[in-house]
Description:
This protein is of the alpha/beta class. 48% of the residues are buried. It contains twelve helices and twelve strands. 39% of the residues lie in helices and 16% in strands. The two termini are 21 Å apart. It folds into two domains: 130 residues, Aspartate Aminotransferase, domain 1, CATH 3.90.1150; 226 residues, Type I PLP-dependent aspartate aminotransferase-like (Major domain) (Aspartate Aminotransferase, domain 2), CATH 3.40.640.10. Pyridoxal-5'-phosphate binds next to helix 4.
Amino acid sequence: xxxxxxxxxxxxxxxxxxxxxxxxxxxxxxxxxxxxxxxxxxxxxxxxxxxxxxxxxxxxxxxxxxxxxxxxxxxxxxxxxxxxxxxxxxxxxxxxxxxxxxxxxxxxxxxxxxxxxxxxxxxxxxxxxxxxxxxxxxxxxxxxxxxxxxxxxxxxxxxxxxxxxxxxxxxxxxxxxxxxxxxxxxxxxxxxxxxxxxxxxxxxxxxxxxxxxxxxxxxxxxxxxxxxxxxxxxxxxxxxxxxxxxxxxxxxxxxxxxxxxxxxxxxxxxxxxxxxxxxxxxxxxxxxxxxxxxxxxxxxxxxxxxxxxxxxxxxxxxxxxxxxxxxxxxxxxxxxxxxxxxxxxxxxxxxxxxxxxxxxxxx
Length: 363
Ligand SMILES: Cc1ncc(COP(=O)(O)O)c(C=O)c1O
């Protein structure tokens, strides 16, 4: 099969991009102005400071309420943070408890360390890991729990009690909690594992989704102070990350109160429009609604269609790029597609109009 990404990127301007949880909604014009000013001043000519743009780490830690006891390493996206964090933490024969469905690229990074994954099937109620099923998987080889909260691709998130329970398992069994909070700003409510086990929590942070910076490639690894130097030794990029991204990210954090709520309102309106379309479409349903992220899953199992075919027809015949479930689940991926909705409402309306017809025609 032709690479759908090559196909879609070659037609980028025509494509309605619902496949990667990227965010095209408005944030603040001040962010773009700061980036343009930095370009005009040719800030890109020098390497940034290894510790990142002055004030960026501080703004990030402040945003998370982690000013004391934590350090932030600025990275090329969350994906670089998880890459060297896994290298620093895991040895062959260790194991990590995680969910399936999940954001699989982190699983691949864990496997590169010859570390085993204990994947809990969460494609069933309550569509996230439970304290009980994590407890059942812990053994002497367990090193960490991968807590992606809110969860890509389902849009579910963990209650404060659940985060507490998971943290207690980590405490009792001497484990790390890898708290991937890429979608935290989309959640109705969110609890950091640092509230319970600050010394055992490593936070993976991304600017891609909340700030709409996916193409800028900026994220962070946040570690408790006692791990900062050890993990920093594994940095894959000691020359720091794109300065234009850092300039924009700092302004985005500083102005978040001015733009986040409007952005979320549009995102939630968009998911409601898709929900209506799904309800009109025989054989499809939303396992999790409302989503605590900027995406959710549309279950298509009862249509008898394969998600790869649905992805292909929507892309090639309708210029709508959604993601087949096989990308995010080894066990349940044939049952669903994933759609993200932080795109202009007009584009969501096109999807809402065409999706029911496409499914009907394909059946
Ligand atoms: C859960 C999760 N973690 C990490 C990432 C990677 O984010 P970044 O673009 O910052 O590398 C993604 C991207 O989709 C994600 O869904």
